[in-house]
Amino acid sequence: MSDKRKFSSNLWSAERKILARAFELKAAQELQSLLREKIAVLPETSSDQIKPFQIGAHDLFRVSALATTSLADLKVALRRYTSATGYQMAIGLDESVRYRLDGSVDAPVSEDNREHARTIVKRRFAKMRQSQAGAKDTPVRERTNSGT
């Protein structure tokens, strides 16, 4: 098996746990701040696993929103959290499942959702690699253009 294929299969391994990073934690805190009650499935620390929401969670969040929370603010906060790379990676894992807001298991992630999440993550990683490669080349081009 090639190194690339080996990495790809490990990336989506069912045994892998996707833990919340700073961005996901901040997005989860922002979302939680808009709600009346604590949502168990949202990560609170960097050792917490990211757990995909059950289908229809948006409606459940709307019901749990503070009276002062606008639907637009709730939508933005939900999108920020669910669009995060860590959340998409959690959806893309082999045998990934969705969770109810109380933290209990709801249902398996559909194959279509899993593949879509993997596509998103792969594009982001490719873009990141491309960006990093460009950053490494920049000082050389600047020196060449400056005539030194």
Q: How would you characterize this protein structure?
A:
- By secondary structure, this protein is mainly α.
- The chain has a single domain (12-143), classed as Orthogonal Bundle (Fertility Inhibition Protein O, Chain: A, Domain 1), CATH 1.10.1710.
- The protein contains six helices and two strands.
Descriptors:
single chain, 148 residues, mainly alpha, Fertility Inhibition Protein O, Chain: A, Domain 1, two-stranded antiparallel ribbon, globular
Number of DSSP E strands: 2
CATH class: Mainly Alpha
CATH topology, by name, is Fertility Inhibition Protein O, Chain: A, Domain 1
How far from one another are the termini?
45 Å
**If you average the pLDDT, what whole number results?**
89
How many domains, as an integer?
1
Describe the strand arrangement of the main beta sheet, using strand numbers: 1-2
Structural class: mainly alpha
CATH homologous superfamily annotation: ProQ/FinO domain
Helix content: 55-70%
Low-confidence stretches: none
Query: What's the helix count?
Result: 6
Shape: globular
